[in-house]
Structures are given as structure tokens and as C-alpha cells.
Amino acid sequence: MAMHLYGLTLQKSTAITSAVYGNFSAPKAQEIVVARGKILELLRPDDTGKVLLSFLAFFSIKCEI
Questions:
Q1: What is the DSSP string of 37-50?
Q2: For 10-58, what is each residue's pLDDT tens digit?
Q3: In the prediction, which pLDDT does 30 show?
Q4: Which residues neighbour 28 within 8 Å (Cβ) at sequence distance 6 or greater?
Q5: Which of these, 24, 55, 54, 30, lies nearest to 44 by C-alpha position?
Q6: What span, in angstroms and rounded, lies between the C-alpha atoms of 23 and 19?
Q7: Is the pTM value of this prediction over 0.85?
Q8: What is the strand order of the sheet 31-36 is part of?
Q9: Measured between alpha carbons, how far is 58 from 31 in angstroms, rounded to an integer?
């Protein structure tokens, strides 16, 4: 009988590795997209600072300056 090991991260990454500011969901909306490891989050800077959209990214994020 073979033993198989399965690795699973139980807690999402908290460190922001990249961020970009712009309007993504509406022409006049002020939003921030942040990358936390493999997770992209769309944030709207208001009094609550809630996360509008969060999803797991199955691609490579590159930033060229």
C-alpha cells in the first residue's frame, strides 16, 4: 500500500506583493487591485475598506517598471 502526502495551505497569504490603483469595475470608481501570493483582490477605498472581489490566480503576475 503506497502512502500519498497532500499539502494544503489552510490560511491565505496576508503579505501584499504587488498593487495597482485604477478604475476596474466602473469608469469613475477608485479601486485598488492587490496580489497576495496567488490571490488577487479588488478593494474599494471607502470607510469600510471591504473586499469587492477575491479569486485564486492560476497564472504568473509580472510587473515591469
A1: TTEEEEE--SSS--
A2: 777 778 888 999 988 888 888 888 888 777 888 877 767 666 666 666 6
A3: 84
A4: none
A5: 30
A6: 13
A7: no
A8: 18-22, 31-36, 39-43, 51-56
A9: 22
